[in-house]
Amino acid sequence: MASASKTKPSEKLALPAQQARSRATRERLLTAGEKVFARKGFNGARLADIAEEAGCSVGAVYFRFKDKDALFQAIAEDYVHVARERLPMMLGVSEPAAIVRACVLGTAANFRQHRGLFRAIMERGFEIPNLTATFFALRDEASITIEKALRRAGMKHRDLPFAVRVMTQMVYGFLLTGILNPRAPTKIDDDKAVEELVVACTAYLGV
Fold first, then answer.
1. 146 CB neighbour count, 10 Å cutoff
2. Which residues are within 8 A (CB) of 176 and not within 5 positions of it... i.e. 6 or more apart?
3. Nearest to residue 195, comparing CAs of 119, 106, 105?
4. Residues 87, 32: Cα–Cα separation, whole Å
5. Which residues contact 111 (CB under 8 A, 6 or more apart)?
6. The whole model's pTM is what?
7. CA–CA separation, 86 and 78 (whole Å)
8. CA distance 116 to 97
9. Measured between alpha carbons, how far is residue 166 from residues 44, 109, 147, 170 in Å?
10. Which pLDDT does position 5 carry in this prediction?
């Protein structure tokens, strides 16, 4: 059993998973929830749909999560937990252009993997103040980490903190549009479009 220090934040939103089978079921439900949110959105998704996707009963969902909001928050908090751990590794390069590239490609990979979560956040997340604050805090941490990495790489800029925030907004806006707008001219799964986003960000920062 995992020690208290390794318990994911979302464990508090579910009954304790004491056995390996129960933990595996819980992880399947989180994965299934993201897939159903990606297809139907938060409002269109039903717990019965999520249970079917996970290959378990609706009762198994309620045994671990009191409602759809609790499941959604568990998915979101697990994402934040993992993204925070991955951020330093994602920027483990030494050239400014490589740092920007790693930032864009890493963020795109996260959005692709968790598109259901981001669609649900846009539909539901901003109604949950503590969750919104958590995501904004993660965004700010990411900006600070990128700024520090660029400074270590020797980058000079008249207002680097502001420039990094603008770049981060460019990346998030591009990727969210690709998830939410089926008529968007560029798609989140289009590698060429993401490469062009890398070009735009490096040109903006002058690296």
1. 24
2. 111, 118, 122
3. 105
4. 25
5. 118, 175, 176, 178, 179, 188
6. 0.80
7. 12
8. 30
9. 33, 20, 12, 6
10. 45
Looking up tokens 């937990």, which residue turns up? 81
- What's the mean per-residue pLDDT of the chain? 86
pLDDT of residue 3: 42
Per-residue pLDDT tens digits for 25-49: 889 999 999 999 989 989 999 999 9
Q: Residue 17 carries which side chain, given as an amino acid letter?
A: A
Which pLDDT does position 9 carry in this prediction? 60
What is the C-alpha to C-alpha distance for residues 149 and 84, in angstroms, rounded to an integer? Answer: 15
Question: Residues 111-168: pLDDT tens digits?
Answer: 998 989 888 888 887 777 777 788 888 889 999 999 999 999 999 888 999 999 999 9
Among 5, 8, 4, CA closest to 23: 8
Q: How far is CA 207 from CA 87, 90, 200, 204, in A?
A: 21, 18, 11, 8
CA distances (Å), 158 to each of 140, 155, 163, in order? 20, 10, 9
Helix (H) or strand (E) holding 86: helix 68-90
Residue range 103-116: mean pLDDT, rounded: 91
Q: How far apart are CA 106 and CA 108, in angstroms?
A: 5
